Amino acid sequence: MKKTIGIQMPLYPAPVLIIGNYDEKGKPNVMTAAWGGICCSVPPCITISVQKIRYSYKNILDRKAFTVNIPSDKYVKEADFFGMVSGRDHDKFEETKLTPIRGEKVDAPYIEEFPISIECRLVHTLELGTHVMFVGEVLNALASEECLANDGYPDPTLVQPVIFSPKFRHYYALGSDLGEAYKLGKFFIK
Known about the structure:
Radius of gyration: 17 Å
Strand content: 35-45%
Structural class: mainly beta
Number of domains: 1
Number of helices: 4
Order of helices and strands: EEEEEHEHHEEEEHEE
């Protein structure tokens, strides 16, 4: 039997996304976001939700661009730090010794050391409440060669992404492979 738990967000997992942007002086900046994900296949688009008080908010609006960087689990401390301090007061790249690289297709930096970086052009904004949702059209994706499968697509077991539990405020590693999509369910097809 289920129990009503009220208005909550028990949606798991939340991705740990590091959002790259430039400030008005051209200084590379990043922020950690967990509210985000794929929202469209054609054209390929990603959403991220950002509070207006965040330093990155104005940067993304001004440049009409951002990158979505996926850290591997060995960079969980850096990912956490990026969400703890503001780029107004900190040079996050200098403090973590990570490398900002100018995007190839957008006016935003990506993180060289992270296995996946996705360059997005801002195409829509939607005010929701505490957050503003940005929709970015994917113009380019970059992946470290070490995380690519034989078909050239990133393998999640090699990327080793970090996931987040908002309620418990803990980070987790990706779990085990449960089986192939669109095959497991054939058990029920008669």
